[in-house]
Design goal:
3 helices, 9 strands, about 20% helix, binds flavin-adenine dinucleotide
């Protein structure tokens, strides 16, 4: 009998892990906490990217070897295009039927040769699997600097104040910074260390 694998998360990592598991004859079940679909932080509803965000890598870098981008796609696609790309990947490899939506894994326990998976709010016995792949995302938690009177700015949806400062100098902060640069009158970038040239 094929070994059963629990995959935690239906973002890019969980989808690719499930597809790889299928390729080697495993039986993956993807547990996804969200009820709003696959795609992880790229989801339109319940995701973590803003409307006019573009990828900070080109479509050739943000590409799976077995699922090419549409030739017409922008070099740096919008987040919405990346979501469509991921959904296309899930369709191509028949992954959607493997996803259990609204199932946040709350507990993992080793029990001899198996793993016991308990989801939040579940009633009854945990589910048993031969293996577990944790793909719950590592950059979902926003880090806020220790300053007062700020509101978390996760999505600006095109509404940018006259002046906006970007804190941190990494590729992820370059994206909101460049978006602000086109719209705001000033857009300083604040970093603890000088950015490498
Ligand atoms: C602002 C920003 C911009 C980025 N830009 C790019 C880019 O341009 N190009 C690029 O390649 N990468 C980019 N990244 C990196 C990004 O992390 C990856 O693109 C990708 O989304 C990571 O996929 P993931 O599946 O590991 O995690 P996520 O996309 O975070 O997906 C994790 C999934 O796991 C689910 N989950 C979490 N915990 C549980 C649980 N206990 N039980 C069940 N489900 C759970 C979540 O609901 C979610 O659906 C960016 C990241 C950020 C934050």
């Amino acid at each position: 009998m094929a070994k059963r694998i629990a995959v935690i998360g239906a973002g890019p990592s969980g989808l690719t892990a499930a597809k790889a598991a299928l390729e080697v004859g495993l039986e993956p079940t993807i547990f996804e906490a969200s009820t709003t679909g696959m795609g992880g932080l790229w989801k339109k509803s319940g995701g973590f990217v803003w409307n006019n965000m573009r990828t900070n890598l080109t479509k050739w870098s943000c590409s799976f070897s077995d699922h090419p981008w549409d030739e017409e796609a922008d070099d740096f696609p919008f987040g919405s295009a990346l979501l469509q790309y991921l959904l296309g990947y899930a369709t191509r490899f028949g992954l959607e039927k493997r996803v259990a939506f609204g199932q946040r894994v709350a507990r993992l326990e080793r029990d001899g040769a198996t793993w016991q998976v308990t989801t939040a709010g579940s009633i009854g016995a945990p589910q048993s699997f031969d293996g577990v792949i944790v793909a719950g995302g590592v950059v979902r938690q926003a880090l806020h600097p220790g300053v007062t009177r700020t509101r978390p700015l996760q999505r600006h949806n095109g509404c940018i104040p006259a002046s906006i400062a970007t804190v941190r100098a990494c590729t992820a902060s370059a994206s909101p910074w460049s978006a602000a640069g086109f719209r705001a009158s000033t857009s300083p970038a604040i970093s603890r260390r000088p950015a490498p040239r």
